[in-house]
Amino acid sequence: MVSSRQAGLVGHFAPDMTVVRDYLFYLLLVGFVFPFRILPYRVCLAYGKFIVLMLYPLAGKQRKIIAENLRHAFPDKDEAWIAGMISRNWRHMGALLADSFYGPRMTAGFYAKHCVYDPGSREAEAAARARGRGVICNCGHLGSWELLVQYCGRILQGGGIYKKLSNRYIDQWYKKVREASGIELFEVEDSQQAIRYLRRGGWVGFVSDQNAGHSGVFVNFFQRPASTFRGPVLMAGVAGAGMLFYSAVHGPDKKVHLRIKDLGLIDLKKFADREEAIRHYTEIWVRELEREARLYPEQYFWVHKRWKTRPEDVDRILAIRKAERTERALNQ
Q: 105: domain range?
């Protein structure tokens, strides 16, 4: 028999299986991305597409989400168009995969060789820089947003908002991948540090079209209210900064097209109500994202549950919380 003391010692020295699992996933990922560190860019794009095509038969759940979102976004399209768009969208994820893991090799020379600025884009950046203020470089999950993360560091010498991953080994590794560009990362919980950076004239990248849950502001995105993060507008407004909207899309000419629009300064003081101001400026950049997604629907990340939180869900939760507060007050 094992004594309680012996059992305690065994438990004390037994490995945490969560830690073991996380480390094994990390080792698997590092081995998986090795070809992206040595192969030419065009080969990496082909390799990424090969990987996602191998996963296609196993991704029934994800394809269902894509189809549902496409039907809502494009109600006038038939099922043949939906099926073709799912296939094109899935292949694009291969390019996104390649751009994500090729990131540390995206030097200034890479951008000069593989990227082109669409008309008006350089001028938009120049106009924002001429104002001498900080800038929120906003984008959505369209095209190759990871390429824009590297761009923010390599070309703009700016910063970016970073959300920690649950696997600490992968988090540390991927943070270094992003920091290879020279980008200064600010954790999403530390908004004050990013605001101070903006006030000093810094440029901060933000991928901000995830579902924001119950704390977001609802604005229409493809005819449906979508809970959207207040952060980009609020930080720009508090810091007296401007906002540029970025997209980086793969074109038929085998170039990545950088599309940049100057949305001007974010002035919350123009509005009597701050919530109204946040909604107004959020609607501006969300409309720009929708315009881009309509132009390049095969390159939007339809697999994420953008419309998961509904206004009625928030109303119900607020009503419950109000009732709970009332009950506590009556019981005091």
A: 23-315
